[in-house]
Amino acid sequence: DVFPSTLPSRRDSAYSAWVSISVGCNNTCTFCIVPSLRGREKDRRPGDILAEVEALVAEGVIEVTLLGQNVNAYGVEFGDRRAFADLLRACGRVEGLERIRFTSPHPRDFTTDVIDAMAQTPTVMPQLHMPLQSGSDSVLQAMRRSYRAERYLGIIDEVRASIPQAAITTDIIVGFPGETEADFVATLDVVRRARFTSAFTFQYSPRPGTPAATFADQVPPEVVRERYDRLAALQEEISWEVNRELVGAEVEVMLAEGEGRKDAATDRLSGRARDHRLVHVARPQQAVRPGDMVTSVVTHAAPHHLVADTLVGVRATRGGDAWAARQAGPSVPAVSSGVALGMPGIGVGP
After folding, report:
1. Is the pTM of this model over 0.70?
2. By the 8 A CB rule, do 155 and 113 touch?
3. Contact at 8 Å (CB) between 270 and 280?
4. Structurally, how many domains does the chain consist of?
5. Same domain, 163 and 66
6. Which residue from 86, 107, 144, 346 lies 20 to 30 Å from 299 (Cα-Cα)?
7. Which class for 31: exposed (0-12), middle (13-18), buried (19 or more C-beta within 10 A)?
């Protein structure tokens, strides 16, 4: 069997890349169209993945995100339940690769060996995006999500015990068919207990071709909107509280293109901390490039970003070199600190 992709894939970034480890999904969530569109999970072999990672690093990439609909089910097709943990460790041994991320895991398949690999591999970033979808056990059952709220919270507790600095984010659907006020309150309770750094929250709407679109007990749109607003307000409060805890902390930020929309006005540059928080840093006096690292102290926190205006140091990287080489035309322009920088967002599925 041939993995259904063409390699090498096109990259928009010279210093950061996505690497597919699987396609398709063996789960049957009632709100999701992926299984019917992409079929059952197909896994790439570890050697092929590592070969691509090594080739990317040779081109200057310093950050890789492993991508799959359910990354921690990786290996099920070839009968190795420890394959994803082993893959994380193997990627961690690739010389020159500085940051490893992955998205998205499914709580059903999240195991201690993956948490150990995350904690014991220095280049695996202290970040976990794990979809919750609902905090109500009855709604989770209707969604055909094969875990319950306490199991989900138990995984978070285990991750934080091994990786105290981990930033945990999630996806939540509001107004799934049959969701009662009591169900929604259960979701709010899990959000309070989990203390997510951030959450991608969605108002449910029927998607043709999914079982949930045919459910009789659709929640009225005005109720969905009201619940969505309450959830968003709660998560905004928690995000702000969690981010304020980092004021005074030192963060390493990889400068990046695409997200620092106000950089020119504020005389700052933007990028992502190791835990993937968006950070706006004071502009260094020396020239820097996307892909370079800036270490700075957090001076201000907002719900969706940090400001770090106390500069500690700057480190040029191979990723920055690769960015500069990509910019080269007939002549190589001087690289200055006047480049507006940001970070491409991560699109995550349920």
Report:
1. yes
2. no
3. yes
4. 3
5. no
6. 346
7. buried
